[in-house]
Design a protein that fits this description.
heterodimer; A: Methane Monooxygenase Hydroxylase, Chain G, domain 1; 2 domains; 6 helices; B: 6-stranded mixed beta sheet
Chain lengths: 312, 206
């Protein structure tokens, strides 16, 4: 590849991503606010402008870049379409499912009305998903006796306590967590890795070999990890050590909190996306016994970093 | 003497191979490499950037590039494509949630011109974890039977126990060696297949 072509492709790549990031953030704003057709249209125009610039650059880019950019455009276009749907109030679109659950004012009734959904995966996988206002323990899993992989997804205003109890511990070697809002997770120390996506306003106690957290905001993490924990596309994450009071076999632990790496901030300056949780703000009293109804909500309000439960 | 002959001759002298380890984050790429090398695997951090390992295996010098799989790092994979003889695509068999993601990334990768002709080994890692997907399941979920552009194979393995790692690497080395150094000899060797240890009966080849 000639020098000028190379420079061009590098420049284009940088510029493209800057513009795409700008559009993404505007889309996010619209998503969270109430999108007006005008605002959505303005974004749509910018997306098509970006698409045009990509078409014009055809031939000057390596094919892999070209494809990556095209895919990026496609995802932006889809996001715009979704917003268009929302702003015109087309009834077809409803991603209010989870939000509607959290809105219910009477948590006691709610707790009864939602059946335990074990996600439709085969094998002896442990999975909990789509629940709200619950205190969950190992007893809520179907495959208590087996060991292996654990999946938690789509939970709102829940406390999940999987700490060993009466000598019974779950033998877990990998944990996958997705889409949790206003939740407290008390997890034992496991030998494998923990992978989390899309948490907001959560408190997490965990011990593991590798820790990865993606696309999450406002979370307090009490962690014991033997390798460097990492975050990516996160903001406002606070780290502290695994609480001594919850530890089964207290062992000396490294200073996990100071070794966090932020993959969205690979620079020499400190990452603005995480901090060490100040000692005074650390939880001393953990909800290790089952709670329900209003006491569950009160306990969540006390512990969660947001101090409140989102009502949207 | 044609250009191809010259290239072949020079490469035969060096007997080198360049192998790229890719896959989503948390797949176990670095752990596999360290295990093969007999290094400590108890405190491996997620890879920020890349690792290079060079070692001799079956009389070939392998240059293995292990590139981080975090989402923010994936755009940089393209910087490592040049002159790649083989891709080892590592899959976390316990991660059902992201298997679709994994499929998309793999198929995107295979469209890349600079990877044309490279052998592809899919490692279905973490078989030690109870309830993990089998190699057969992963074969189906990743749509491997649709891959016609590359010579491929899927092997179940475990980086923690070391199960099947060497056998997988053997296949890679053999496949690349046949192509680079003996390609004029036997054109019709091993089919794309599911099984590593022994050649499967025809009906298991999907």
């Amino acid at each position: 590849m000639s020098e000028s072509k190379w420079t061009f492709s590098q420049d284009f790549y940088t510029e493209f991503h800057a513009k795409a990031a700008d559009i993404t953030s505007r889309l996010d704003d619209l998503k969270h606010g109430s999108p007006t057709p005008g605002a959505v249209q303005a974004v749509a125009v910018d997306v098509s402008r970006l698409a045009k610039s990509l078409v014009e650059a055809t031939g000057g880019l390596p094919s892999y870049d070209q494809r990556q950019c095209e895919m990026h455009i496609k995802s932006l276009e889809m996001a715009v379409e979704v917003l268009r749907g929302a702003s015109c109030a087309v009834p077809k679109f409803s991603f209010k499912k989870k939000a509607a659950k959290a809105k219910t004012d009477d948590p006691a009734i709610h707790a009864v009305s939602i059946p335990l959904n074990v996600s439709p995966v085969t094998g002896s996988v442990k999975a909990l998903s789509s629940l709200s206002c619950r205190y969950l323990t190992a007893a809520d899993f179907e495959h208590r006796a087996t060991s292996g992989e654990l999946t938690l997804s789509d939970l709102a205003t829940c406390i999940v306590n999987l700490l060993p109890k009466d000598g019974h511990s779950m033998d877990i070697s990998a944990i996958h967590v997705q889409r949790l809002t206003d939740c407290v997770l008390l997890l034992p120390r496991i030998s494998g890795s923990i992978l989390l996506h899309n948490l907001s306003n959560c408190v997490l106690v965990a011990g593991c070999h590798q820790f990865r957290m993606h696309s999450s905001t406002n979370a307090d993490v009490y962690l014991s990890a033997v390798s460097n924990p990492i975050i990516e596309h996160c903001s406002n994450i606070r780290f502290a050590e695994y609480p001594d009071t919850l530890m089964q076999n207290p062992e000396p632990q490294g200073n996990t909190a100071s070794t966090v790496q932020d993959f969205s901030h690979i620079r020499s300056t400190p990452s603005p996306n995480w901090s060490v949780l100040p000692k005074d703000y650390r939880q001393q009293c953990w909800p290790v016994t089952p709670l329900e109804g209003q006491t569950l909500l009160d306990e969540l309000k006390r512990i969660l970093p947001g101090g409140d439960i989102s009502q949207n | 003497m044609g250009l191809l002959t010259i290239i072949r001759k020079s490469r035969r002298k060096e007997k080198e191979m360049r192998i790229l380890f890719l896959g989503l984050d948390n797949a176990g790429k670095t752990t596999i490499l360290k295990k093969i090398n007999g290094e400590d695997i108890s405190s491996i951090s997620p890879t920020l950037g890349f690792n290079i390992k060079t070692f001799v295996h079956r009389s070939y010098t392998l240059n293995i590039w292990d590139v981080g799989g975090q989402r923010t790092l994936r755009p940089y994979w393209r910087n490592y494509f040049e002159q790649t003889d083989a891709i080892v695509w590592v899959v976390d068999s316990s991660d059902r949630v992201r298997i679709q993601d994994c499929k998309e990334e793999l198929h995107n990768l295979l469209q890349e011109d600079r990877l044309t002709g490279a052998s592809l080994l899919v490692f279905a890692n973490k078989q030690d974890i109870h309830g993990s997907m089998t190699d057969k399941e992963i074969h189906d979920l990743l749509g491997l039977s649709g891959i016609k552009s590359h010579h491929w194979k899927i092997s179940p393995c475990s980086a923690v126990t070391g199960y099947n790692l060497i056998a997988g690497l053997d296949w890679v080395v053999e496949d690349v060696a046949h192509r680079l150094y003996y390609s004029s000899m036997v054109p019709d060797r091993g089919e794309n297949s599911l099984d590593t240890v022994s050649p499967p009966p025809p009906q298991t080849v999907v």
